[in-house]
Automatic annotation (TrEMBL):
Keyword terms: Membrane, Transmembrane, Transmembrane helix
Name of protein: Uncharacterized protein
Top-level taxon in the UniProt lineage: Bacteria
TM segment ranges: 52-70, 82-104
């Protein structure tokens, strides 16, 4: 099995991240519809509980997309360059959250 990072992998990873971040950005961007400023989630959903569930769903989708891309980059590039073992999706998910926590705090 060829593990190299190909152009098609880069295109698919870029599209997946673009879609995930676009959905995330569109859900929190303020709109000037009618009175006051609302986000698209405010326009679509009235209930606070549904808004929280929607944000949780978007967060999980973005996290899963980033973890899948991180896993593929690790397994196709870093494992060969640094002679490291390949990782699973669960390990990639944990590493993404660990790196996020370290960089944000």
């Amino acid at each position: 099995m060829k593990k190299g990072i190909t152009t098609s992998f880069n295109i698919i990873a870029t599209l997946a991240l673009f879609i995930a971040f676009t959905v995330q950005y569109a859900s929190v961007r303020e709109l000037n519809i009618g009175e006051g400023s609302n986000t698209i989630v405010d326009v679509l959903f009235e209930s606070s509980e549904i808004k929280v569930l929607f944000y949780l769903f978007v967060f999980i989708i973005v996290a899963a997309t980033l973890s899948a891309v991180f896993k593929e980059i690790w397994n196709r590039l870093l494992s060969d360059i640094l002679t490291l073992r390949e990782i699973t999706f669960n390990e990639a998910y944990s590493l993404c959250f660990l790196l996020m926590a370290v960089t944000l705090y």
